[in-house]
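User: Predict the complex.
Assistant: Input components as received:
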Amino acid sequence: MTNSLIRQILLYEKLDDVEINILLKRFEAVSLKTDDYFLKEGQICRNVGFIETGLVMYYKLSEDGHELVCDFAKENDWMTQYQSFISTSSSSLSIKAIEPTTLYVISFDSLNKLYEEVPRFEKVTRQLIEKVFFGMVKRAGDLQALKAEERYEKLLAENPFIIQRVQQYYVASYLGIAPQSLSRIRKNSSG
Amino acid sequence: MTNSLIRQILLYEKLDDVEINILLKRFEAVSLKTDDYFLKEGQICRNVGFIETGLVMYYKLSEDGHELVCDFAKENDWMTQYQSFISTSSSSLSIKAIEPTTLYVISFDSLNKLYEEVPRFEKVTRQLIEKVFFGMVKRAGDLQALKAEERYEKLLAENPFIIQRVQQYYVASYLGIAPQSLSRIRKNSSG
DNA sequence: TTCATTTCTTCACAAATGTGAATGAGAATG
DNA sequence: CATTCTCATTCACATTTGTGAAGAAATGAA
């Protein structure tokens, strides 16, 4: 029995076959078509997903009504809206698939039962949250200290999948610049 | 027995007098003069501090050798460099007092003993970390979506203590702009 | 107080980024 | 295939922000 979910979890914590089987029963396979939502703004996020294949985007509506892209997640990434999930409060973000996406999904209740059944799984979760937290610190630092062109170059170096697989106006939004500016940056940096 | 440390903790979790006494024995009172360090870049952060009075600044050196201000913490705030603390790795940040500061400090080992003695204290810690995490998400969103003047106005509205108590070139760095730009923004926004 | 040092402000100009419009390329649809 | 629609590119120009220099103001030390 090997799938990407188990493979990923085993990177963080050794679990035996019994534990793995318990764990698998708690997850449900879900498919999203492009533009389907994992979570809509205003809803309470009651699930955590692990992406087997595909690509999703976190975004919110800014005050002037534009989509503001906050993050991406791709195959082998975990996804949830932590604030909403943890505090059972309505989410200010939406998460939608921007490629056909297959997931393993676990609900809040199921996750808590899993923690009782497989206590070591809590360590996995904690490490994953830390990873997201440190990623956010890094992102804030980049937005603070780098100019647009540098942020683009860094994204290209560190997360090329975003630039390869995401529409440019979404990438621009994620970088905090206008689509036209990203177009200009790409022209200057490649030539 | 009432001090700001206990008062703050009780906001998050009800603890009885026995627990409070155990807890107090694990913390040590420390004073920092202005420009004294709580943590220096390159060191491993082995402590968590609770600020009773005063003000500290997190910063790192950018590639061009300038101080880049990452955060502030004031009285009744907790302070540590999570990444270094959690993973016992050397810190890329420094934390220094920018006002005379009094602290309660607890070491990594002492904190873990405290978790055994007062298990409920883990809940406090978890909530504090979540708070920092959500704050960082918000900061990244602001840096992404707002222009310099809007970031300044928002800081003034939400954290006026920073503008009142921190030198302007540090505030500018925190906002991700040049000191002269902050000066210009202040001139235009007040008139 | 006086002097030295640091920080803040102001200015002129440079560089970076935003904006609206026009065009073009490609994908989707019929 | 033709048509539409969406997105990317380009351009001219506006706005925002950065930069270096000069001086003013504030701070700290003798």
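The radius of gyration of chain B is 18 Å.
Let me know if you want any component modeled separately.
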